[in-house]
Amino acid sequence: MAIAGRTGTRAVRSRCIVRVVVERVREESPLDTNTDSRRAEFLAGLRAQLPLLLGVAPFGMAYGAYAVKTGLSAGLAQAMSAIIFGGASQFVATRLIADGVPGAVIVLTVLLVNSRHALYSASLAPHTEHLPARWRWLLAYLLTDEAYATAITRYRRRRLAVASGDAAPQGHWFFFGSALTLWATWQVTTGVGVFVGAAVPDSWSLDFALPLTFLALLMPALRQRPALAAAGLAGLVAVVGFGWPYGTGLLAAAFAGMAAGMALDRALPSDGEAEPGAAP
Amino acid sequence: MTLWLIIVASGVVTYGVRLSVLVFVHHSALPRIARDALRFVTPAVLSAIILPAVLYVGADQHFSAGPGNERLLAAIIAAAVAWLAKNVWLTIGSGMAALWLLQ
Asked: pTM of the prediction?
């Protein structure tokens, strides 16, 4: 950086050397052009995730505490965070395990709760299709609501930058930095929740953190009428089907809600512009 | 042992969903109706989990939709905060604080 302000042959030569080195690295590895920009992107992703951790950290602790409270062993509670790595689905699976619901229904319910990730996967795919398979397998494992939201925002800005002639930044390192920050926080806060959980009395109503967190995720989506219809009908069916066996009320509610959302989306003239990935 | 199997299977299907378009299926190959349906899974499932958790209360999980249900009142306050502030932390904080005060 200091060289840029100087004049003289030394500075020119230095710049030439830098350019040659950069071009040589580009030829060898078209993806990883520059260690500095990789680090910068990774750290930018980490920083973008920080405000979201304020919500995720208590959620992770609430999960760990809730899992232990419902009778899961500490090992199982922690393993679920590493193996499933999806807060909402972990809460649901924990609840269904405690209720003695058959395993197949639990797996199907987890699949349904996490099926929104297929949309994230579809939305991010155009930005990651140039990456080697090992990168896409890694980013897919780390894909969450929070990682998606931050990564897709970065990719859209990057596309604008590329259009205006800027060099392509290492977007996947941003994605990785953001997603890994969330992953590490989730594992650690699960452990904290598991450890502290045994000491938390019922009167604290810690389980209420689940519907509250989901409310925070749900409410912004309700500004679009089809999403409101989906949530409304799904909620109604879930309340009616609360006593249905094996969690089938939840499944019926989800499918009813999805049908209602789609129906209203098609009936309304382009309300809530349906760009894939723009949905919450 | 069975629980481990359930968790591993849940992890495998979850990973499969996340891998789906990133690795297995080309994004342009998705049928329109699938993309349309997936857009509404989140509001549908979240709502389907929230409402029973708020409306079926107590140790016996009885239905209560009246002012005697502290969780319902706390959830309404939290929903208002979520609507205005769009912040998970504030939503949890206001909802828990409301529930503790009401109890």
From this structure: 0.60
Distance CA A89, CA B42 (A): 12
Judged by DSSP in three states, A169 sits in coil
- Total tally of structural domains belonging to chain B: 2
Tell me the chain A residues in contact with residue B69 when contact means C-beta distances shorter than 8 Å.
none
Using a CB-CB distance cutoff of 8 angstroms, which residues of chain B are in contact with residue A215?
A: 46, 50, 75, 78-79, 82, 91, 95
Predicted local distance difference test score (pLDDT) of residue A59: 81
| A136 vs B contacts (CB less than 8 Å) | 19, 22-23
Q: Do B48 and A260 touch (CB under 8 A)?
A: no
Q: Is the pLDDT of residue A185 over 70?
A: yes
Residues from chain A contacting residue B71 (CB–CB below 8 Å): 205, 208, 211
Q: Domain residues of chain A, as ranges?
A: 35-201
Per the structure, the complete domain to which residue B34 belongs is given by: 1-39
B67 touches chain A (CB under 8 A): no
Asked whether residue B5 carries a pLDDT value surpassing 90, the answer given is yes
pLDDT tens per residue, range B49-88: 889 989 999 878 899 998 999 999 999 999 999 899 877 7
Count of alpha carbons within 13 angstroms of residue B63, beta-carbon side: 7
pLDDT at A84: 96
Is residue A119 scored above 80 in pLDDT? no
Q: How far apart are the C-alpha atoms of A70 and A180, rounded to whole Å?
A: 28
C-alpha to C-alpha distance for A146 and A154, rounded to whole angstroms: 13
Handedness of CA A78, A83, A86, A91 (dihedral sign): negative
Partner-chain contact A216 B92, CB within 8 Å: yes
Is ipTM over 0.95? no
Are B88 and B73 part of one and the same domain?
yes
Tell me the mean pLDDT in the region A265-272: 73
A60-91 burial by CB neighbour count: b if 16+ within 10 A, else e? bbbbbbbbbbbebebebbbbbbebbbbbbbbb
- Closest chain A CA to residue B19: A140
Find the residue in B nearest to A206 (Cα): B96
pLDDT of residue A93: 93
Judge if B47 and B23 occupy the same domain. no
